[in-house]
Amino acid sequence: MKALVYHGPGESAWETVPDPDVKEAGDAVVRVDTTTICGTDLHILKGDVPEVRPGTVLGHEAVGEVVETASGVVSVRPGDRVLVSCISGCGRCRFCREGAYGQCRGGGGWVLGHHINGTQAEYVRVPNADVSLHPLPAAVPGADAVLLSDIFPTAYEVGVLNGRVRPGDTVAIVGAGPIGLAAIAAARLYSPGRIIVTDLAPARLDAAKRLGADVTVNAGEDPARLVDDLTDGLGADVVMEAVGVPETFELCTRMVRPGGHVANIGVHGRPATLHLEDLWIRNLTITTGLVDTFSTPMLLEMLAAGRLPASSLVTHSFPLHDMERAYEVFAHPAETDALKVVLTSENLPQPPLPIT
């Protein structure tokens, strides 16, 4: 089969690799019909995730069809159309029993495209299939459903739930990439009083407005001062970091009110300074997190009911064999205005691009 293989920082290639087989009793093999590229994949290519070994197939998001199951799989069977979750919980360890699948100690957690071969391929082996695969209604387009592999559960769990968004809150989101935009949609489920979004890219700020941001501000125009002005100097109740660099994390700590919440969603490859000499007295709660995906079944129901604007985040579509070109487009959003790119198997029709 063909797959996108990581060969070290800055190096990857769409090349031929062996087809996957089931290895453990809980495995399934899925033919990938739809996949996408995540900001985390770009962090891997930059060398920010050194535990990813050269030779690993990248990717942790997909929709496809089950083609083979091992003896221990009971919830899906060959022929089923499924969503592949970015998290593969064993379902048995202490953390999985608590719904914290991202911290699985039974061989799961974030393994696809991280510790084992991932989904940016024609086929993928999915461990712990009973927990990691979600059957999909035929009416749900793959290009929409694939956004529930990662970004919508991440925005909802690591951003909105960790940030404890409540009705009437002022919510500030730093970064209007796919995760930040999904966080806008997820935060709106809790009726905040105001959502403020900052980013450097005008196209992403426009997308933020379309998804429901009340106020947008270019990151070069002192967003912390704007938040102060809009809250009479108090600060935002909840601030979400959706970029993953030290400067944006420190900006978040300047934008939050005393007693407020900073929810870090971004993947960081460098240390960020925690100014405890200023923050200790402000009663802040700062959370980090890897998504657990316990919310995926609920979010799938909302998607099927038309309550999640998933298709609004897709700006580019490619056939699966154009993976390298898709990476170029996704990695240069300032030039391409890319948000989410979707790649579809050649045996399926290409999804239409949204009308904007």
From TrEMBL:
Q: Which SMART domains match?
A: PKS_ER
Molecular function, one GO term = oxidoreductase activity
Query: From what superkingdom does this record's organism come?
Result: Bacteria
Pfam families noted in UniProt:
ADH_N, ADH_zinc_N
Check the UniProt entry and state the signal peptide residues, or none. Answer: none
Q: Enoyl reductase (ER) domain location, by residue?
A: 8-343
Q: Which UniProt keywords apply?
A: Metal-binding, Oxidoreductase, Zinc
Keyword Lyase tagged: no
Reported cofactor(s): Zn(2+)
Can you tell me which family this protein belongs to? Belongs to the zinc-containing alcohol dehydrogenase family.
Q: What is this protein called?
A: Alcohol dehydrogenase catalytic domain-containing protein
